[in-house]
């Protein structure tokens, strides 16, 4: 149990997926404009990450069994793409309110590199199944945290007077640098 | 008009005018993650260029065969195949680079530039323009990575391609090779490009210039706005 908690805390704070590993930057910069969409995207990512890990872990064992682990990238991305589509269809039928909240963000998740990144990292780190699930959950949580924190920062930028050339994306990136700086405080921690 | 001019335009537009990173704001993840050293940046850029050229080549050949409804999974599988290929080649011949790129080599699969070019260009154009487009975009990406990598390595480590530079190698500003420095340098480089281009800052990063925009209902408005040359070619 202690191990699981350590994995989650490490994923959320020490190795934040967006701010120190640079995965899912496109979604991070694109969706963090408002708190509401940040939460929606975060929720969808947590959900897909956990489910995708639950699917890719057995798939990898299968690949290992037949000694074709070099097909990992192809197999994983197919599983993720298929899975996202499946969730979308199932959710639309069975949980319309949830679909309404998360639906827009689902297709974007296929190309969110954090999802493929976390499934690959789980294998590379040699995590067991429960550890992989914990890591996926923690990574999703980290993504959500980064988005939610940053949406607050962005609300401030939009109201401030900045030089013309820095308006828009450059200012956003520099704000992200400052937020990332605050996460560096955790980087020395070894749990 | 003869054939040469449009063809060379397909190649050169990716280098500066429609540079995938600095102007179209695609593929930010590798741009930030692997540019701590200039040599890593070049390695990543060339690996991506290889995948981009090959996938554009194959997708352009198969454009009549792939059913429209399942085109994205097909594209992704083709791309993932080439990514597997290049990671084998790097693992065998450049193990040092393979180690330092790490998981980001695998993540070339989901680089928006590659899927974006497949969707917006290669699936609608002939073989030669597609290959040239891939090459131009790939080299534009490499160039942007190289600029980022050089700046961060010189400022943050006091060296360039591993060669120690006088004066700054004594006390390098470590912050530049940390994650925060990556965001900062990219922000400044994009601001500089805005300044040089003397135009309105590029559109915000949003659904509009995301390759999967077509999936989520944003449809082609964004694609066409970001690259007028292609919509002409598509016609």
Give me the oligomer status.
heterodimer
Q: End-to-end span of chain A in angstroms?
A: 14 Å
Unreliable stretches of chain B (pLDDT < 50, length at least 5) are 214-235
Structural class of chain A: mainly alpha
Q: What share of residues of chain A is helical?
A: over 70%
The total count of helices of chain B amounts to 11
Spatial gap, N to C terminus of chain B:
17 Å
* Uncertain stretches of chain A: none
Count of separate DSSP helical elements of chain A: 9
What is the overall shape of chain B? globular
Explain how this protein is built.
The complex is a heterodimer of chains A (191) and B (235). Chain A is an all-alpha fold and 191 residues long. Chain A has one domain. Chain A contains nine helices and no strands. With 235 residues, chain B is an all-alpha fold. Chain B has one domain (14-225). Chain B is built from eleven helices and two strands. A two-stranded antiparallel ribbon of chain B has the order 1-2. In chain B, α3 crosses α4, α7 (112-122) packs antiparallel against α8 and α8 (127-157) crosses α9 (179-197). The two termini of chain B are 17 Å apart. Chains A and B meet through α2, α4, α7 and α9 of A and α2, α4 and α9 of B.
What would the keywords be for this entry?
heterodimer; A: mainly alpha; B: 235 residues; mainly alpha; two-stranded antiparallel ribbon; 11 helices; 63% helix; disordered C terminus
Helix and strand layout, with pairings?
The complex is a heterodimer of chains A (191) and B (235).
Chain A: H1 2-14, H2 25-31, H3 35-65, H4 72-94, H5 96-102, H6 106-109, H7 113-125, H8 129-158, H9 169-184
Chain B: H1 4-13, H2 28-33, H3 38-61, H4 71-93, H5 95-101, H6 103-106, H7 112-122, H8 127-157, E1 159-160, E2 163-164, H9 179-197, H10 220-226, H11 228-234
Antiparallel strand pairs in B: 1-2
Helix pairs in contact in B: 1-8, 3-4, 3-7, 3-8, 4-5, 4-7, 7-8, 8-9, 10-11
Give a concise summary:
The complex is a heterodimer of chains A (191) and B (235). With 191 residues, chain A is mainly alpha-helical.
